[in-house]
Amino acid sequence: MSSLSFLLVDDFAAARNQLRRLIGSTPQWRVVGEAENGAEALQLARQLRPDVILLDVAMPGVNGIQATKQIKKYLPETLIIVYSAYNTHLISKRALDAGADAYLNKSDLDRDALVAIINH
Question: Is the pTM of this model over 0.90?
Answer without folding.
Answer: yes
